[in-house]
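Two proteins were folded this term; both appear here.
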Amino acid sequence: MDESRPRHQTRRLPLIIERPDLAHPVRRAFGLFATILAWLLWLAMWIPFLAALGRLLGYNLPEIYFPSQVSLHSFLSLIHILPTVVGLALGLLTLRFVWEKIRPRIGKPDERWRPLGVDRLATGLALDPERLAAWQSAQVLYVTHGPRGRVTDASTTRPDQPSRPD
């Protein structure tokens, strides 16, 4: 009564990636065209390397197949600097990871090693501080969870049994 409920139950359609037949036909045709164009462009970018490799192996390729001054030696010179580039990239990734781990704690006291205290323990377990002594002496604790899975109540008596007067 205190919460509003939805008027219409919305039926969720599956994602387009799971059901491509639900996409509009023009969008599907454009996607196919863009994919083919991207694959052709990727293949075309290999032409200078393959032409340089062919010339190195002794094939006499016409100049039209090899329009630029790129040679296999320039590709091989990149291999000499590859370990340095990969090492720098891994170093930067490691530094970024360490910075992300350290940054939230810079300038703040370490919460993990703070003394717990009775009040903080009672608040964390959804107990009244007065009931904490009974909870600490109990062997079984019955916990009630809310709709999101958080602890809403904890007691030493079963929820379905009436509590005994102490």
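Next, the second protein.
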Amino acid sequence: MSPSLLRRLDRVSASLLLLWAGAALGFGAFAAPLLFQELPSRDVAGRIAGLIIGRLDWAAWAAFGLAGLSWGARWMAEVKEDLIGPLRLWSAGWLVAMLMCLASAFIVTPKVRAIRARIGAPIETLAPDHGDRVAYNKAHGLSRNLFFLRILLALGLAATVSMLPRKNQE
């Protein structure tokens, strides 16, 4: 691939990552607190926030997955050269982000939904030491941590995608 095509792919990757990070940060910092503040029930606010998080999870798959186009053509060239280089470090960050998408979309979010369905009532109606409320709080905390770590990874990957090598290293 030519360096100009790689530069364009880098810009597209950075744009997708920044777009997703902006949407996720906007929701997490502005919209979610307003939902819980203004809606009459925390349960309704949580259900709406959960639906939005589900959509942001799928958007994260798209953003991080398409950002992988930036390094796909470069990977084989670096395999011959350095043990650890910028491409491998970027790839490790990208892989961690994809694993977080996997964990969030297929493990944590279904667990939160299963607990909510099993309870069938607002979470705050349960005693603080009730097993389902404790499990829900743990899963929700993990979901929140994965969400904000993916935002940080998206910002980091977007900031460093321009540092990936662009020359053919054959």
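DSSP finds six helices and no strands in the chain. The helical segments are 3-38, 42-67, 69-72, 75-79, 86-119, 131-160. These notes refer to the second protein only.
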